[in-house]
Amino acid sequence: MTVLSQMPSQRNETSLKTRPAGAERLRAGAERAHGLDGALAAALERVARIAATSLRVPSAAVVLLGQDRRCFAGGDETHPWLSRDPGALFRIGLANRVLESDQPLALTDARTGVADDGADTVDSLGIGGFLGIRVAGTSGEPIALVVAIDAAPRNWNRDEIEHFTEIAASAVSEIELQRRTVEAERIERQLRYDALHDGLTGLPNRTCFVERLRHAGERARRHAEDSFAVLFVDLDHFKVVNDSFGHLAGDELLVEVGRRLSGCLRSVDTLARLGGDEFALLLEEVHEPSDAARVAERLQSALRSPMTIRDSEVFTSASIGIAMSGRADDAPQHLLRSADLAMYRAKEHGRSRFEVFDPAMHTAAMERLRMEMDLRRAIERNQLLLHYQPVVSLSTGGVVAVEALIRWQHPDRGLIPPLEFIPIAERTGLIGDIGYWVLSRACEQLKSWERDFGYAAPQSVWINVSPKQFAQRDLADQVSELFTSLSFEPRRIKFEITESIMLEDIELAMRTLGELRRLGVQVFMDDFGTGYSSLTYLGRLPLDGIKVDRSFVSQMGTDIRQAQLVGTIITLIRNLGLEPIAEGVETDQQARLLREMGCAFAQGFVFSRPVPPREIDELLRNSAGR
Ligand code: C2E
Ligand code: MG
Ligand code: MG
């Protein structure tokens, strides 16, 4: 069962009606078909005329079989009923006799060829001698009758019958020619349609959209009042649906989204699917961003009610970017890119919302591009470095481990924090190389502390791993090779992953998790409570511990209920058999409360900020000396 088959057909019709281009196409098609019909009629009338003239009869005709039984008559004194009511031939039974016979039916007097009660009708129709033949198309099925009718009884000789047969055959080629032309036209129309439409949703595709955008731009240049808006719509977390329900379900969702979006439009607007989970809208005659914003709100609320996909309720939302026409550069590609940039901003600001493009976004995009280019060279230019933040035992106060936190020493911008460049690295794929660099650098650092401080050195180093790294198939292999080459003990590495790992390929992530743990690497969930997963879901992931996000910890001192919440979370984590670690501990009071709640390890400014390795040296030296 699919959801799509349950959709009321009425909605299908609405969505068709909202596509003016469809109507135009149909009309154009009909006109063309009419022109062809005209050509066929002329050709078949000519065939009839030739038959009438050469047999010297007042009328002859070609009667098409099929629903409409159109008749094309010719001759000097054509029987008037022939064109008006060719069905008469069937009612008196003559046509049927022709149809049943493999040979031409030649009747000296048609009255003898019909049933008794038909003879009068034959008289009144003015049929004397009758000659009829059935003609078949290339595939063998009968397609027409050709008849010659004399007013008086008539003896047909062999030559006449043979000649008549040849003339009738020429009708076949005319009809076949028309069929082939109609079919060729249909295929051509189909190809043209396919080139401009998305196969899945039937909506206009990118090519078609850009074309319409170009027209709209030209109109707006001629008449200032023809201003318009472009909306770029991107579904939020579409990947989750694809990954959890499969691609077919993802397709169903896209079709339903297309349907809902088109339900929000006026007939002059265009909705297109650009590809993947990206849609675009062209809103004509929109003058103010606020008009476009209202449409964006309508679109978002249309998506709000859940969709039933594969028997499951799926919730979806979209981030929307709006660009208005009327700037100096209204080239379609630029408008689309502006709307895309605004959409990007909507995502950055928390998704399920819309943003209107302003030129500052373009500046910001250029800035990102420059950062991206700089970041590509950062590794080889030795601009990346690691700071380390101690993980302390709440019972002894000793440093048990350190977390490696990356920084980028930019030549112009100074020290850049990870949240400003890790997302760029993730988007551009640089995260693979950077992640590997962090891992090897941190392992080397730990070895050097071990050399210098022996037992006082941190027992392990904790490393943040991006979900994108988990999507690399060879992560576990890389790690294992590195450990071998550094002769490094895997249990001294702890990976921190975040809940957004659920948004990547979850199967692959689970496999990698399993492989890492088989290597002996421990894995912790970082920033718990800020993401998507519930504690029960976490119970299914093979983890060693969970870091409780500082947003919980920071409010412990001020709010008793908040403190109780943290206590509950810590108990739940322990009940799952996992180790809780508190992040962002800033006061002694928080540290004490956490210890009382059964949390053994913590990090936070109250113990130490993340610092360069040589400051950790100092810390270790002091504690070793104590
Ligand atoms: P995180 O892994 O949750 O790291 C903790 C962040 O909280 C660090 O910010 C740290 O400086 C800060 N922090 C620690 N204690 C306190 C405290 O008591 N109070 C407050 N207000 N903040 C505290 P940082 O270094 O800017 O790192 C931010 C995030 O960047 C990290 O969050 C982590 O998700 C990511 N990150 C850092 N290094 C890497 C890396 O090498 N690879 C990847 N993929 N991500 C990294
Ligand atoms: Mg971390
Ligand atoms: Mg954290």
Please work out how many helical segments DSSP would assign: 23
Task: Report the biggest beta sheet as strand number plus sense, adding barrel if it closes.
Answer: 8 strands, mixed, barrel
Question: So, the CATH homologous superfamily of the largest domain?
Answer: EAL domain
**What is the CATH topology classification name of the largest domain?**
TIM Barrel
Output the structural class.
alpha/beta
Q: What is the beta-strand fraction?
A: 15-25%
Describe this structure in words.
- The radius of gyration is 40 Å and the shape is elongated.
- It folds into three domains: 10-194, 2-Layer Sandwich (Beta-Lactamase); 206-357, Reverse transcriptase/Diguanylate cyclase domain (Alpha-Beta Plaits, 2-Layer Sandwich); 381-625, TIM Barrel, CATH 3.20.20.450.
- The chain has an eight-stranded mixed barrel with strand order 13-14-16-17-18-19-20-21, surrounded by five helices.
- The longest helix is centred in the N-terminal third of the chain and has 39 residues, at 158-196.
- It is 50% helix and 18% strand.
- With 626 residues, the chain is an alpha/beta fold.
- The structure holds ligand C2E and magnesium ion (2 copies).
- One magnesium ion binds at residues 403, 464, 496, 526.
